[in-house]
Amino acid sequence: MPRRSNLTSRFLFDGLQSLNKTLLTKNSKLFYFKGNPCTLLQQFLLPFYSQQYSKIVVYISNEYTYEEKAVELQLQKLEKEGKISLCAFWNSTILSPTDLPFGSVANLPDVYTNFRKGVESSIGQYNVPKPLPPPSTIPLLPPELPCNVFEDIPDPDSFVKVDDSRTAFPLRGGEANALKRLNYYLSSNSVDKYKVTRNGLVGHEYSTKFSPYLAFGFISARRILKDLFEYEKRVTANDSTYWVWFELLWRDYFKLLALKFGNRIFHRGGLNIRGNSNPRWLENDSLLFHKWCMGQTGIPFVDAAMRELLATGFMSNRARQNVASFLVKDLNIDWTKGAEWFESNLIDHDPCSNYGNWLYVAGLGNDPIEGRRFNIMKQAKDYDRDCRFVLTWCPELQGCTSPHAPWMDRSFQGQGRYPAPAISIPPTWNKHLKAAAS
Ligand code: FAD
Q1: Coil, strand, or helix at residue 204?
Q2: Does residue 402 carry a pLDDT above 70?
Q3: Which of 13, 68, 186, 356 has its CA 20 to 30 A from that of 269?
Q4: From the CB of 324, is ligand 1 less than 6 Å away?
């Protein structure tokens, strides 16, 4: 599977163009190189600079997962060999692993609530590190830089021709757009209702939409919290404003879990916290998996969400939980396949949040409740009562009297406009089906 979609590429290059603009205002410039940064350093920059300058200083963000850490290790080796000076910062999370009140990452609690309570009681929500101001100037790069090594930053608009007007994420990448979204979400007071609206499915207002900006580092969680806490002082502090902190701390938690468990977050068997047995997955799953990916399972609530992901690169948290549970618990398909599909398609893909949440839903991570399985029909009735979500993404269900359970509508059945269910309907859905058909 490709590691990122065209929608994600557009978002990334929006951000690089925007960074370049900011650097130009500071008499600097962004140089774009595609490949391993250590190759760039070793093959092109070090031979060139070592004759003219005493040492190159490399600034990096500390990372949490294998591939990124592999680059970090290569850079550490160059530092040990005396070829560069390395300055690394924990800047993608609210808390650095060194700030933790649990001694070390090895003692990180295996249950989120214990982690959150530990942080809130020992550090306190309002005492977390503040963001640093951006530098007012950045030194000019030496004019003799070997420019032929670098490419032009790709044009973001070359990746996507037409946007889907139904998208819940009608936003573009870059720091300026991230700050605009943050400002909008606070100044429109949407944040005051976040806890009530966050399980929404249609439109951009129901949740913050910060995740894609956070995933690429276009904004930091500390910057979001700074503005959020100022808003709480100036306007209002309620359950909803608290809940944004609560969710951002989940993001930190999944990153710290990745540090604690290393590559186990990617293993089919999971974290093995409670000695989970290796689940048996369906063997010949390719057709079913394909139906799931394409939004053709015949279960509208699942199909709507999967079609949304494919068309827009975004899916709400409520829908992510449902499609993940459906894949693992109803279709019996290996969770890592679903996680890879998400990785390939989500604009906000973050390895820690993605694999951490999939493990959680699959019951192989740190969910304290064992055997949790979403009742898709109940979820559909609870969160899409007016069927707006399924009709938005499965328009061929227009005219069906039970859009959440089209197989219940005899006159609609068999018209071939919408696929038949790919599974036998679980008996636990029955009582909710009656409501769906009424
Ligand atoms: P909001 O509801 O507005 O939340 C505010 C912020 O809190 C988010 O931007 C995010 O940074 C953080 N947050 C909220 N919920 C979670 C959570 N469950 N786990 C971690 N952080 C959270 N989130 C990603 O950022 N990248 C992923 O690759 C990703 N994959 C997921 C896969 C599955 C199977 C599931 C169930 C969830 C996944 N999430 C992922 C978490 C969550 O769904 C998204 O962060 C959220 O939907 C993004 O929309 P938002 O910014 O409007 O969120």
Answers
A1: coil
A2: yes
A3: 68
A4: yes
- The one-letter code for the residue type at 286 is S
Report how far ligand 1's centroid is from the alpha carbon of 16 (Å): 23
- C-alpha of residue 235 to centroid of ligand 1, in Å: 26
The closest of 207, 408, 196 to 300, measured between CA atoms, is: 408
Strand partners, 59: 87
Please write the tens of the pLDDT for every residue from 263-299: 999 999 999 887 766 778 988 899 999 999 999 999 9
What average pLDDT does the segment 48-73 reach? 88
Give the position, in ligand 1's atom list, of the atom nearest the Cα of 316.
47
Give me ligand 1 centre to Cα 250, in Å. 8
Q: Which two tokens stand for residue 294?
A: 């394409």
In residues, how long is the chain? 438
Q: What DSSP letter does each residue of 292-359 carry, written as one string?
A: HHHT-SS-HHHHHHHHHHHHHS---HHHHHHHHHIIIIIS---HHHHHHHHHHH-TT--HHHHHHHHH
The tokens of 91 are what? 């800047």
| Paired tokens of 200 | 């929404």
Is the CB of 325 inside a 6 Å radius of any atom of ligand 1?
Answer: no
Distance CA 349, CA 355 (A): 10
Tokens of 132: 């640093």
Question: Token pair of 367, please?
Answer: 């969910």
